[in-house]
Amino acid sequence: MNCGELATKPPVTIAPDETVENAAEKMASQRVGLLVVVDKNNPKKPIGVISERDIIRAIAKKVPLSTTVDKVGTMHNFIYVYADDPITVAARKMRDHNVRHVVVVNRNGELVGVISIRDLIGEKNVLNILAREWAQTME
């Protein structure tokens, strides 16, 4: 199974000049833990992410909720996988970078979706694939 097959839901996006408050409202209403920040002129071009963790850190630092997401989120060096990568690549990147989400793009860099840790553990066949790879690395 590849990452594009697992990332079936449309990604929830936000513009870089929207506020942290808007991001939190969107996350709550869409029931997601990560928004993909996209280029205002090209909604298929991801330029960053803002996560629940980013918002918590901002609140802890007393950052005003009117601050724009491009000042609080992870811009340009966010973690991503290609749609044709095996799902094991997504799992490995989540583990290695201590993140709960990876952005999925095609080979042209266009946004395809997002894979969350919940997506990985919510599918029995995905868990079987991950277990087989883990077992092979333990040999």
From TrEMBL:
<keyword id="KW-0129">CBS domain</keyword>
<dbReference type="Pfam" id="PF00571">
    <property type="entry name" value="CBS"/>
</dbReference>
<protein>
    <submittedName>
        <fullName>Signal-transduction protein with CBS domains</fullName>
    </submittedName>
</protein>
<feature type="domain" description="CBS">
    <location>
        <begin position="74"/>
        <end position="132"/>
    </location>
</feature>
<feature type="domain" description="CBS">
    <location>
        <begin position="7"/>
        <end position="65"/>
    </location>
</feature>
<dbReference type="InterPro" id="IPR046342">
    <property type="entry name" value="CBS_dom_sf"/>
</dbReference>
<dbReference type="InterPro" id="IPR051257">
    <property type="entry name" value="Diverse_CBS-Domain"/>
</dbReference>
<dbReference type="InterPro" id="IPR000644">
    <property type="entry name" value="CBS_dom"/>
</dbReference>
